[in-house]
Amino acid sequence: MVDDPHQSQAPRDPLPPSDRQDERDLMVEEQMAAPTDRRAPVVEARVLQAMRHVARHRFVPADVAEQAYDDSPLAIGGGQTISQPYMVAKMTELLELEPGDKVLEIGTGSGYQAAILVALGARLFSIERDPTLARDAQRRLAELGCAGPDLHLVCGDGYRGLPEEAPFDAIVVTAGTPQVPRPLIAQLADGGRLVFPIGEEELQTLVRIRKEGERLREEYFGDCRFVKLVGRYGWER
Ligand code: SAH
Questions:
Q1: 3-state secondary structure 149-218
Q2: Residue 9 above 50 pLDDT?
Q3: What single-letter DSSP state applies at residue 62?
Q4: What are the boundaries of each domain within the chain?
Q5: What pLDDT band is residue 13 in, cutting at 50, 70 and 90?
Q6: pTM of the complete model beyond 0.90
Q7: Residues near 232 by Cβ (< 8 Å), separated by ≥ 6?
Q8: Atom of ligand 1 nearest to the CA of 231
Q9: Distance CA 32, CA 34 (A)
Q10: 150 within ligand 1 shell (Cβ under 6 A)
Q11: Is 221 helix (H, G, I), strand (E, B) or coil?
Q12: Which of 4, 54, 94, 234 could be a cystine partner for 229, CB 3.0 to 4.6 Å?
């Protein structure tokens, strides 16, 4: 393949593909494309491609880097976790993104899901309330070449969304909430999708709410376990 100088500058190319590529290919095959348990496969080819591409091991602390492609969430400090790879892929698929879609993520955490969304061509706004995590994610995403005009990281309480940037084509909440985050629904574009975990502290259900004119269509996608969304509409601090 001929080297394209624009390509090498592109914000969508976080790492040379050789870097633990075999492990990522296996992760996608066994955990997402063809899981052997009862999980619904992730079928959207562009999502699987992004999951093969982004180097998850660069988003976790050194002491757990070895387990970066395991089928589980991992601790990233501050009592928070990087979500299980399957959950990142499934939530991303449920967002039904088209390149150029304006997307809001609540809970930047490690920045891994943000990197996946940017790899899919999203114009992403991502909010994290923990200043240390927000700063680390910003540095990491810049180092990996994800920083650019399509990525905006905000440190603050995500419960109110980002009204000044609304409407969004898609919104993803990567922390569990006990109730529907109303302000986020108000910030969906017509046809927009909101994906979030709702339920008890220990167990939630993955939900997608789609705005269709005046109507809201809800769909449920099974059990999941996320850390708590903190603050209003979330759990008490
Ligand atoms: N998407 C992340 C996983 C995040 S875990 C990743 O790919 O690594 C959930 C994150 O939500 C945590 O970092 C937590 O600090 C953050 N969070 C919890 N409540 C929040 C709130 N009200 N606003 C913004 N971020 C919040």
A1: CCEEEEECCHHHCCHHHCCEEEEEECCEECCCCHHHHHCEEEEEEEEEEEECCCCEEEEEEEEECCEEEE
A2: no
A3: G
A4: 21-224
A5: low
A6: yes
A7: 157, 159, 160
A8: 22
A9: 6
A10: no
A11: strand
A12: 234
User: Annotated catalytic, 83?
Assistant: yes
For residue 122 the two structure tokens come to 């999203």
Cα of 227 to ligand 1 centre, how many Å?
8
pLDDT greater than 60 at residue 6: no
Ligand 1 within 6 A of CB of 14: no
Q: List the catalytic residue out of 8, 72, 83, 126.
A: 83
CB of 113 shorter than 6 A to ligand 1: yes
Place of tokens 């002491």: 63
How would DSSP label each residue in 15-64?
Answer: S-TTTTHHHHHHHIIIIIIS-SSSSPPP--HHHHHHHHHS-GGGGS-GGG
| pLDDT tens digits, one per residue of 86-106 | 999 999 999 999 999 999 999
**What span, in angstroms and rounded, lies between the C-alpha atoms of 140 and 236?**
29
Provide the 8-state DSSP code for 66: G
The mean pLDDT value of the chain amounts to 92
CATH architecture of the domain with range 21-224 = 3-Layer(aba) Sandwich (3.40)
| 161 alpha carbon, distance to own chain's centre | 15
Q: How far does residue 204's CA lie from ligand 1's centre (Å)? A: 15
* Residue 219 and residue 207 in contact, taking contact as beta carbons nearer than 8 Å: yes
